[in-house]
Amino acid sequence: MKAKLVENFPLVQFTLVRIKTSGDMIRRSTPSPFSTKRVYTQEIEEALEKKEIDLAVHSAKDLAVELPAGLGIGAVLEREDPRDCLISREGKKLGELPLGARVGTSSIRRRLQLLRHHPELVVEEIRGNVDTRLKKLEEGIVDALVLAYAGLKRLGLTSSVTEVFLEEKFYPAPCQGAIVVESRTEDTELKEVIKPLNDPESAFRVACERAFLRRLEGGCQLPCGISTRVAEGDPKVTAAGILFSLDGSRWAEAKLEAAFEKPEAIGVRLAEEVLAQGGNEIIQQMRRDMER
Fold it and tell me: Which among 118, 139, 164 is the end of a domain?
């Protein structure tokens, strides 16, 4: 991102500031599905509010559905591939893994989708950065891993991928693969600076997917997924979403096609379809379980 800013504004000096967040330090805990605490962004956003920094860069799926007052998404970079993928020690695809094969993931959404399609698998919770997870795979702690394909692409590690899942079968997390630039809404000059970074289609899809999650009243741990597509040369949007119960015994799924309208309206409509297909009961049961 810095390189693109320098390219567009060669006379401006840009400095990178690294800020550690609460989420980096509490990865062993699992927030509530409805938690909207800004564990992965709070310290960065506080620095932005205090004008210690001028711009904040986040993985879009880490952003809370409601941003702090005075802050907004100023740009969405061109989105990377949002799909999940499999890396297995023997180069086997998901359907080729043997009975009882151990598949590692830290995501409840991925775990429930794995067991939905292949209940014979053993899903192991595995945390840490990509290198740590790959090492556990090499050591035989698990037989395969499910990871975000975008992260592996950015690290140049796609040669180890044995299967990239179809979005219709294995729903990505809302906004997976997207990077956003957050700024203070009052800084009109800075908005112009980051404007060239914005990719309109990626911004449209991120807005749609954030609206979907917001309508479900969930946080980044809500076991839901969404796929959005904007047809090329045709003003039409295709969106599909799913919501799982925490034990994976039930799910509600919906799909719609819409004219190219406000992205938030499409995301809300899709979420309401999911809720109408049984999602309301799933949400209510989750809330009852959380109260126990």
Answer: 164
Domain that holds residue 179: 2-80+174-291
Q: Strand 144-148 relative to strand 179-184: parallel, antiparallel, unpaired? A: unpaired
Show the tokens assigned to 17.
């500031």
Higher-confidence residue of 231 and 181: namely 181
**Residue 54: active-site member:** no
Q: In the chain, how many H helices and how many E strands?
A: 10, 11
Size of the chain in residues: 292
Alpha carbons 246 and 241: distance in angstroms, whole number: 16
What are the helix (H) ranges across 50-187?
108-117, 130-138, 149-154
Q: Which long-range contacts (C-beta less than 8 Å, at least 24 apart) are formed by 127-135?
A: 127/27, 127/28, 128/27, 130/155, 130/157, 133/104, 134/87, 134/160
pLDDT digits (tens, 9 = 90+) for 191-200: 888 999 999 9
pLDDT tens digits, residue range 9-48?
787 788 888 888 776 555 545 556 665 556 778 899 999 9
Q: How many domains does the chain have?
A: 2
As a whole number, mean pLDDT of residues 39-60 equals 92
Q: What is the DSSP secondary structure assignment for residue 119, as one 8-state letter? A: T
The residue from 24, 54, 62, 143 that is catalytic is 62
Quote the pLDDT of residue 108: 94
- Determine, yes or no, domain membership for 13: yes
* C-alpha to C-alpha distance for 124 and 139, rounded to whole angstroms: 14
Q: Is residue 12 in a domain? A: yes
Alpha-carbon distance of 107 to 127, in angstroms, equals 9
> Is pLDDT at 137 greater than 70 in this prediction?
yes
Higher pLDDT, 36 or 171: 171
Q: Is residue 169 part of a domain?
A: no
pTM for the structure as a whole: 0.91
